[in-house]
Write a structure and sequence with these properties.
Structural class: alpha+beta
Number of helices: 28
Strand order of the largest sheet: 2-3-8-5-7-6
Strand content: 15-25%
Largest sheet: 6 strands, mixed, barrel
Shape: elongated
Distance between the termini: 32 Å
């Protein structure tokens, strides 16, 4: 207990450095605990509201008609009174005004009586949904009425029939993510399904059967029995607890990325913890020298300062947890439009416990080196201001190894992906090493420059001031800015390639669900030759006789083999395709069914020419041998298919067609209305509008990532402020000597400003070089798009960084520059 009063007294005397240490600890925890807590909170909230979000106890889904055995099993349960069912059909279609002058692509939802079993569909009028939706009527979103100029009570053309708009929907319990769904919602009564005339062969219809179980305790048993009754892989039977959702998948993927940002901020902030603690101990050198002189043992001193670190670390952990809660609230606010309405978020106490453990571990790891250096402090050297003796190299290697192992374990714990974890840790370590090497090279060069201008020469000398931590500041800022600059450059290149520079000759209008007997009439309506692309929907069942593990494939974060694929048939390559394996699209010396695959499929699972892939097409099995592997220019917006068959193999399979045309923006609306009025089953997608929606979504997500990436810059700025405070005595001496020798306050200001300008310029310049290299590799190699360096924007980012660095550095140096020589000399005399 005798240490506590002394610790509190020393913390008060060095409150600036102690405060910076606490902030670095808090910064290292705030984002990661916020992201982890938010993920847990969302998962728990989605679990608690799962029945409402899915509107049922059991959910059956299929893109094909529900199999007869499963239908019979459901009907038997309904006849026994154990369940109540409601069939739903969801699909896209273009709806039109009665005068055929306006149309809009909409999301139709045809529901049976009983929907929803849980939750409510909220209507603008406040009336009950189940009473309003009736045969011959529909309920729509307000945006649909606004876009085609209708109001409640007007008639609306949908497919081959007319329905009356009876009300406006404002919320539905099982609604998917708004930003991922194109077009306003339209509810239709199931008795009008046949009158729509849109249930043609090959149409993209999502079939859902919702079941309400009378006895809640039987939900799992009934679901298990229905799974056994389902003979096809294309059908899924889930309970409200096991069923995935668009919201959950989106948040899982996005929070996965944000956790990477949080882990990155943690490691950068750890450097800040180490640097600020070193600066704090440097401030205490005279105290340590006095303690050793009057007989304090090394054990006493180590215990004393370890307790000081524990006290400050505990305070930092507490501040970090509180900041994490605030950040979690901010994240919920920023992601508000992407979350289900009424989703309640609460504090995840398991996340708080994890944060406390994480906080003490981080403090212990990054405090090891500064605490070890205490034993090397010699009173004689401190009192005579002699250079300190360097410590052995093994503590550095041990500290680095422990931090690396901790970081790797943390990544594997949060990512649950060993291979990806190693890649991520390797990338971060490589970035830090590259920043350290470049920073050392830049400082070595600066030290040897023959500078004649006095203020600049003194500023360069200031970079190498004892205890200035210039290298640590530059490394931290360089690493942080590299991520922020790189993210912004990649976003700008994607936006320039796919949004701003939408190729004039690229297709921007896609016409879906064209029936084979409509091709001639469709071409005549368009008024020019049209290329039609056949579409056959199928699932992959096996590769080289090995069955596809759908649950394992579905857990992959990238595209996988478990989903439904669109197959096609043709005999030639498209203009944007080339063969990367194989001499021709199909082999003339093979008699068995063949298929050409895109290189993307080979990335999902290793395959080669001669391998065999099993497909199930409308319930019919087919095994085909890989005859060639293709690639394509990813900058092209032309249609493409992963699997291409010979025409003789696939032409007789049930299929639809689609066409891709280039249409001027002014003609898009009239053409859509004209085509749909003649062919109500055809859906028209305006690709330029779709890209605009995705661009806005990506802009929102990028802003969120940039906001949290700024936390890593804060770590570098805290080190900068800490270095100013740690070298206060040396800076005061410099300032006083300048003034004694006749320099004015302006000269002192110029020297300190140039020192901060050099730090900001070198850090941001190195970061920009690394970001340009990384963004170039991502764009040209991973995305296969052209790269633009965006020099004006890049220079603006560098300028803002320099301005921020100078502002923070000069604000911390303000009291130093104001020191008067007379006051300083008197203080020295008194000592």
């Amino acid at each position: 207990m005798r240490h506590i009063p002394m610790i509190l007294r020393q913390v008060r005397r060095s409150y600036r450095q102690a405060g910076l240490f606490v902030l670095c600890v808090a910064l290292s925890l705030a984002t990661l605990t916020a992201f982890s807590g938010f993920a847990r909170s969302v998962s728990r909230a989605l679990l608690e509201d799962a029945r409402t979000l899915h509107a049922a106890d059991i959910i059956i889904r299929s893109h094909d008609p529900i199999s007869a055995p499963l239908v019979q099993a459901v009907d038997r349960l309904a006849d026994q009174g154990r369940i109540v069912q409601a069939n739903i059909h969801e699909f896209y279609s273009v709806v039109r005004a009665p005068d055929e002058k306006a149309s809009v692509l909409s999301r139709l939802k045809v529901v049976e009586a009983g929907y929803p079993f849980y939750g409510q569909v909220t209507l603008k009028s406040g009336r009950p949904f189940k009473q309003v939706l009736s045969p011959g009527a529909c309920i729509v979103e307000q945006t649909l009425l606004d876009r085609i100029g209708l109001k409640v009570g007007d008639r609306l053309k949908i497919g081959y029939t007319n329905l009356t708009v009876d009300d406006v929907v404002t919320a539905e319990p099982d609604r998917p993510l708004d930003l991922f769904a194109f077009g306003p919602r339209v509810f239709i009564h199931s008795s009008d399904l046949d009158a729509l005339g849109l249930m043609t062969t090959g149409s993209r219809i999502h079939r859902v059967v919702l079941l309400k179980v009378m006895d809640p305790l039987q939900v799992d048993a009934i679901a298990a029995g229905l799974k056994q009754a389902s003979p096809f892989d294309g059908e899924s039977v889930d309970t409200y607890l096991t069923s995935g959702s668009v919201v959950k998948r989106f948040l899982d993927n996005f929070l996965f990325f944000l956790k990477l940002v949080g882990l990155f901020i943690l490691i950068v902030s750890g450097l800040g913890i180490q640097s600020t603690l070193t600066a704090l101990f440097n401030e205490k050198q005279r105290t340590i020298a006095v303690m050793k002189t009057v007989g304090a043992s090394g054990r006493f001193i180590n215990t004393h300062f370890m307790l000081m670190v524990l006290v400050l670390g505990t305070a930092g952990t507490g501040v970090g947890i509180l900041a994490g809660a605030a950040v979690q609230g901010g994240l919920a606010w920023m992601l508000g439009p992407l979350l289900p309405e009424g989703l309640g978020l609460t504090i995840a106490w398991t996340g708080v416990v994890e944060a406390v453990m994480l906080g003490f571990t981080v403090v212990a790891l990054f405090s090891f080196l500064p605490l070890y250096r205490l034993r090397e402090m010699r009173p004689v050297a401190i009192f005579n201001r002699l250079p300190s003796v360097g410590i052995a190299r093994w503590p550095y290697f041990l500290s680095g190894l422990l931090v690396l192992l901790f970081f790797l374990a943390l990544v594997l714990w949060h990512m649950r992906d060993i291979l990806f974890g190693f890649y991520f840790v390797g990338a971060v370590v490589t970035l830090i090493l590259a920043a350290a090497l470049l920073a050392q090279l830049a400082l070595w060069t600066m030290k040897r420059l023959p500078v004649r201008q006095l203020a600049l020469r003194q500023a360069i000398r200031g970079l190498f001031r004892r205890g200035n931590a210039t290298r640590a500041i530059m490394i931290t800022l360089t690493v942080s800015l590299t991520v922020i600059f790189g993210n912004h450059l990649i976003e700008k290149n994607l936006n320039a390639t796919f949004v701003q520079s939408f190729p004039a000759d690229s297709p921007n209008a896609f016409f879906l669900d064209i029936q084979p007997d409509q091709t001639e009439a469709f071409s005549a309506a368009i008024g020019r030759p049209v290329q039609f692309y056949p579409i056959v929907r199928a699932r992959i069942t096996a590769v080289n006789g090995e069955a596809i593990d759908r649950s394992r494939e579905g857990q992959k974060r990238r595209d996988n083999l478990s989903r439904v694929f669109n197959l096609t048939y043709r005999e030639t390559l498209l203009d944007d395709e080339t063969l990367i394996d194989g001499d021709t699209l199909f082999r003339s010396d093979w008699t068995e069914p063949q298929v050409s695959v895109m290189d993307t499929i080979v990335e999902m699972r290793e395959m080669k020419i001669g391998d065999r892939i099993g497909f199930k097409i409308q319930g019919v099995p087919l095994t085909a041998r890989i005859s060639s592997i293709r690639t394509r220019d990813s900058r092209s917006l032309s249609p493409f298919f992963y699997f291409v068959f010979p025409e003789a193999i696939m032409k007789q399979a049930p299929h639809t067609l689609f066409a891709a045309l280039t249409v001027s923006p002014g003609q898009m609306g009239p053409l859509q209305t004209s085509i749909v009025s003649r062919f109500p089953n055809i859906s028209v997608i305006d690709m330029s509008q779709t890209i605009g929606i995705l661009a806005r979504l990506m802009a929102r997500l990028s802003r969120i990532v940039r906001v949290f990436s700024l936390f890593s810059i804060a770590a570098g700025l805290l080190i900068l402020v800490s270095a100013v405070f740690a070298t206060r005595a040396e800076r005061v001496v410099e300032s006083v000597y300048y003034k004694i020798l006749g320099a004015g306050r302006r000269f002192v200001f110029t020297v300190f400003a140039l020192e901060n300008i050099l730090i900001g310029l070198l850090s941001s310049g190195l970061a920009l070089a690394l970001a340009q290299a990384g963004a170039y590799w991502v764009c040209t190699v991973r995305f296969d798009i052209g790269y633009r360096p965006f020099f004006p924007i890049s220079l603006t980012m560098v300028g803002l960084t320099v301005l921020l660095t100078v502002t923070v550095g000069m604000a911390a140096s303000r009291s130093i520059m104001a020191k008067k020589p007379v006051a300083y000399l008197r203080e020295q005399q008194n000592e």
